[in-house]
Amino acid sequence: MNTPEKRKLPRFSRFERRVTLGLKIVVLIAISAIVLYGALDFIGRVRSVAIILIGAVFFTYVIYPFVRRLHARLPLIWSILIVYLAIAVIVGFGLAVVVPAIASDSQSLVKATPGFVQNAQASLADPDNPLIARLPSSLRVYIAALPAQLVTLAQQYGGQAASRVLSLVLSTVSVLATLVVIPVLSVYLIMEAPALVEGFIAFFPPRARPKALAVMKDLDGVLGGFIRGQLLVGATIGTAITIALLILHVKYAVLIGVAAGLLDVIPYVGAVVAFVPATAIAFFSDGWQHALLVAVIFALIFQAEGHFIAPRIVSESVGLSPLFVIIAILIGGELGGIGGMFLAVPIAAILRVLMLHVRPKYRA
């Protein structure tokens, strides 16, 4: 008997494979844009709930490695309680030591601001100042008026922002969300994580479940690496700036360092924002030599963060180069302000993971 010939699968040309890949990428981008628009619209309608849920997810990613290590020897609930107790101790230390120093620096800075403005105006209006001596007189007058204008803008917009933030922080809902709801939700997320994963995987057909699990594993690694890594980077940069300014005897060192650490939760933002007030305070307090020394120290911190700290801690975990991180931050800031800047990098990392899993793999 003649054996039936095997059916040959059609072989696509190189051009057809490229067109197929391009179409898949376009479709993925379009679907991602539609999903993102719908998600943002839904989040805008339930903003308070979304903030609580996002905070709970981030908080869970921060504490989960410690809970997992303790859970290897202790029951899960005891592991969570021990981690929460350690967090309470750290928060208590911050309230007892760091907060009074920040409050003292803030009060001193508010009282000293008029003096700084007068010194800045006098220095910039001085015709013997080598920095602006060769500039036209009209430009020197404009530069001399800049400090007062900056203070006016800061008081106008900073006061509005501070009042909004203060009202949000002091509101009952915000306090309950921060102190009660987020930790409680985090406990449930940790305890019910296996059931949540199993329920989500059940939506996929059996053949697709290994792929779905692989995607979820990569997304989990990316989000956890970014959140924990960025907090570590912020703490490192804030501590380094505080210690450096204390050694250089720059006023308000604790306030500037803590602000830099908090703002550095958005990659590369904290040290850049802290550079301006630290250098200006050093310049108008002790002269340009001291300001130059402070600028050199900040340049070293910039280099350390950009080439050693952030790439080793964050960039390796999210798989994005510093260039793409900066581009993502700029796009996030344009679309969503400060919140968009913070969410830009993890969203970009998630899209990268999805692209890697969707992209076809050709054999050589």
How would you portray this structure in words?
With about 375 residues, the chain is mainly α. The chain is about 85% helix and about 0% strand. The longest helix has about 50 residues. It has a domain of about 170 residues. The protein has eleven helices and no strands. The model has no long low-confidence stretch (mean pLDDT about 75).
Question: Outline of this structure?
Answer:
This protein has helices at residues 14-45, 47-71, 76-125, 137-170, 172-191, 193-201, 209-247, 253-263, 269-286, 288-318, 322-358. The protein is an all-alpha fold and 364 residues long.
List the helices and strands and how they pair.
Blueprint: H1 14-45, H2 47-71, H3 76-125, H4 137-170, H5 172-191, H6 193-201, H7 209-247, H8 253-263, H9 269-286, H10 288-318, H11 322-358
Helix pairs in contact: 2-3, 2-5, 3-4, 3-8, 7-8, 7-10, 7-11, 8-9, 9-10, 10-11
